Amino acid sequence: MIIAIDGYSACGKSTMAKALASEIGAVYIDTGAMYRAVTLYFIRNDINLEDMEAVSSALENIVISFDHSKGLNECLLNGENIESLIRTKEVSGLVSEVATISLVRKKLVEIQRAMSDHLDVVMDGRDIGTVVFPDAKVKLFITADPLIRAERRLKEYKKKGVEANITEVLENLKKRDYIDSNRKDSPLKVADDAIVIDNSKLTREEQLEKVIDIVRRSQEEDH
Ligand code: CDP
After folding, report:
1. CA dihedral sign of residues 154, 170, 73, 217
2. Which ligand 1 atom is the nearest neighbour of the CA of 9?
3. CA 217–ligand 1 middle distance (angstroms)
4. Ligand 1, atom 6: nearest CA belongs to which residue?
């Protein structure tokens, strides 16, 4: 069973997807982390995003995997645990441009499909219900008021000791939403058969309850 969760930046998709996966005994796959990992590699190796030959050969040197042991969902880049290095402002500032590159998308979508083979998976991202798994059993599209999303992201930054202010965080979210929704390849949009959830006024628990209910109902339909 595949559960596809798409939506805008910092709308709490991953927190919800993680909790849902653990509740239903599925594997959680964070595709945003994969685009962030490629971005980190491009920054470290000074890859020119306009130079498709450089991009292509860089991609050949990249292996992305996840450490799912001990209940973790940590992203590995060529075996290195980069989880704490990919949520920075620098990576957030570049990731959506990297994610417009078709060569990058093609490689990551292949990995995402291969990772899900024969598994029950909860996968979150921007194109999961539309492109990666158009036949997913359940498709959710999560959204929330931009200011509320920015406040939530700012709280995460504060927890990690990252200096940030609400204006720059809000600007980054808006910029990413714009690039993600307007790119040519696999733009962020609501799949025709997705259920849209605006979680601006929902607590994490209320949201989780709602999605568990949706998933259970869809499982019951099969029996
Ligand atoms: O956690 P947050 O919502 O800030 O973003 P993320 O899920 O970590 O994704 C980071 C960026 O990766 C997005 O803004 C997109 O540009 C890109 N992305 C994508 O293009 N397709 C996906 N399936 C997942 C992420």
Report:
1. positive
2. 3
3. 28
4. 32
Q: How far apart are CA 132 and CA 205, in angstroms?
A: 28
Task: Report whether residue 104 contacts ligand 1, using a CB cutoff of 6 Å.
Answer: no
Q: Give the global pTM.
A: 0.96
What residues contact residue 209 under an 8 Å CB cut-off, 6+ apart? none
Per-residue pLDDT of the chain (223 residues; tens, 9 = 90+): 999 999 999 998 999 999 999 999 999 999 999 999 999 999 999 999 999 999 999 999 999 999 988 778 899 999 999 999 999 999 999 999 999 999 999 999 999 999 999 999 999 999 999 999 999 999 999 999 999 999 999 999 999 898 999 999 999 999 999 999 999 999 999 999 999 999 999 999 999 999 999 999 998 887 7
Alpha carbons 77 and 34: distance in angstroms, whole number: 9
Q: In angstroms, rounded to a whole number, what is the distance separating the alpha carbons of residues 210 and 92?
A: 29
